[in-house]
User: Which sequence fits this backbone?
C-alpha cells in the first residue's frame, strides 16, 4: 500500500506532465497548420514536374543513349534506401512506422542477395538503423541539413545523392517517407527515385512513348530533349526529396499532436484514479485513528 | 484575341497564375514571346526576367526567376522556376 505522501507527489508530478503534453499538443497543432499550408503550396510544382517528367521520360525511354539517372545502368545490385525521419521525438509511432517499412524492404533485398545501403535524413532513425544494419549507413544528415525544410536543403541532399550515384556507389535508390493524409492517418510510403523510370527499357514504357507521341503531336524542344532532360532530372529528384521532407514534416506534427492528445487524456485518467485511491486511503487513515482514540478512551 | 493562360510555379508556392495577352520567357536559346495558340514547346529557361503583358504595350508585372523550365501546351504556359521574385 503506497503512503499518502507518495500518492500526493505522484498526482502532482502527473499533473505537471499533463501540462507539458497539453502544451506540446497545442504547439504541434499550430505547427501542423503551417506545415499543411506549405505542403499544399508545394503540390502544384511537384505535380507539374511529375507531368513533364513522365512525358519526357516516355519519349526518351526508347532512345539507346538514355541517361543513367532515368533508365539506370542495367544493374540493380546495390540499393540505397533513403529513410526520412524527424529531428525531434515524442511523436508516437511516426519514425518507427517509416523504419519498419524500410527494414522490411531491406531484409527482402538482402534475402534476394542484393547489397543494401542506408541514407538517413533526419536524426531520429539514424541510431536505430546503425544498430540493426551496422556499417551500412553511408550518410546520416545532421540537424542543420534538414531544418528548416527548404528547397535549398533538399537540393543539397539531392546533389549529394546524385554524386554518389555518379560515382557508382549504388544502382537503385528508394525513398521512404510518411505520406500525409490527415491528422489521424499518415501512411509510410516507398517510392523509387533512381532510376526515375520504373519500367525502364521494357516494352510498356515504349508503348507509352508511342501513344504519347500520337496524342500530344509534335512538341518543339529548346535546346533539345536530352539537354532538357539532363537538367530536369536532378531537379526532379530534388523535388521528390523536398516533397518527401514536407510530407514528413506535416505527418510528424500530425502524429505528435495525436500522441500528445492521447497522453494528456491518459494523464487525466491516471490523476482521477489516483485521487480516488488517495481519498480512500485518507479516509482509512482517519478511521484507524478514530478507532485507536476510541478504544484508547474505553480502556481508561 | 484569346488570352493566354499562364502559371508561374516555384517549389514553395504558386507564384502567380492568370490570363495575359503575352508572356515573355527568357529561354536559353533566346527570349520567347508566348501568346495564346503558341505551338507546344518545352524549353529550358535561363535566369532572367519574365514579363507579363496585359495588352500589347502594357507590362502588367515582371518576375525575376532562376533555375527554370517552361512548358507550353494547348492549355497554356507553365513556368517552373526554383525561385521567382516579383519586381516593382
Assistant:
Amino acid at each position: 500500500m503506497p503512503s499518502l505522501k507518495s500518492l500526493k507527489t505522484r498526482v502532482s508530478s502527473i499533473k505537471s506532465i499533463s501540462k507539458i503534453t497539453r502544451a506540446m499538443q497545442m504547439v504541434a497543432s499550430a505547427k501542423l497548420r503551417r506545415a499543411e499550408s506549405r505542403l499544399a503550396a508545394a503540390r502544384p510544382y511537384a505535380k507539374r514536374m511529375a507531368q513533364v517528367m513522365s512525358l519526357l521520360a516516355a519519349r526518351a525511354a526508347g532512345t539507346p543513349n538514355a541517361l543513367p539517372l532515368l533508365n539506370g545502368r542495367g544493374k540493380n545490385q546495390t540499393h540505397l534506401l533513403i529513410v526520412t525521419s524527424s529531428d525531434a521525438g515524442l511523436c508516437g509511432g511516426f519514425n518507427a512506422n517509416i523504419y519498419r517499412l524500410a527494414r522490411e524492404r531491406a531484409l527482402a533485398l538482402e534475402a534476394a542477395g542484393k547489397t543494401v545501403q542506408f541514407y538517413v535524413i533526419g536524426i531520429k532513425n539514424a541510431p536505430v538503423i546503425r544498430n540493426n544494419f551496422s556499417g551500412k549507413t553511408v550518410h546520416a544528415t545532421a540537424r542543420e541539413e534538414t531544418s528548416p525544410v527548404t528547397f535549398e536543403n533538399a537540393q543539397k541532399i539531392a546533389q549529394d545523392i546524385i554524386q554518389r550515384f555518379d560515382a557508382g556507389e549504388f544502382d537503385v535508390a528508394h525513398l521512404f517517407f510518411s505520406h500525409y493524409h490527415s491528422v489521424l492517418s499518415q501512411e509510410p510510403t516507398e517510392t523509387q527515385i533512381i532510376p526515375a523510370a520504373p519500367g525502364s527499357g521494357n516494352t510498356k514504357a515504349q508503348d507509352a512513348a508511342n501513344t504519347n507521341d500520337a496524342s500530344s503531336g509534335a512538341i518543339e524542344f529548346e535546346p533539345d530533349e536530352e539537354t532538357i532532360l539532363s537538367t530536369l532530372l536532378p531537379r526532379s529528384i530534388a523535388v521528390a526529396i523536398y516533397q518527401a521532407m514536407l510530407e514528413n514534416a506535416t505527418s510528424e506534427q500530425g502524429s505528435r499532436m495525436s500522441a500528445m492528445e492521447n497522453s494528456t487524456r491518459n494523464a487525466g485518467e491516471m490523476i482521477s484514479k489516483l485521487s480516488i485511491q488517495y481519498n480512500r486511503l485518507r479516509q482509512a487513515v482517519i478511521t484507524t485513528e478514530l478507532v485507536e482514540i476510541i478504544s484508547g478512551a474505553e480502556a481508561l | 484575341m484569346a488570352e493566354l493562360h499562364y502559371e508561374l510555379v516555384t517549389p514553395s508556392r504558386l507564384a502567380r497564375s492568370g490570363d495575359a495577352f503575352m508572356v515573355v520567357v527568357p529561354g536559353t536559346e533566346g527570349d520567347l514571346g508566348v501568346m495564346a495558340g503558341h505551338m507546344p514547346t518545352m524549353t529550358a529557361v535561363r535566369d532572367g526576367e519574365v514579363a507579363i503583358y496585359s495588352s500589347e504595350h502594357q507590362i502588367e508585372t515582371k518576375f525575376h526567376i532562376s533555375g527554370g523550365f517552361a512548358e507550353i501546351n494547348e492549355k497554356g504556359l507553365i513556368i517552373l522556376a526554383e525561385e521567382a521574385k516579383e519586381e516593382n
Notes: Chain B has no helices and eight strands.
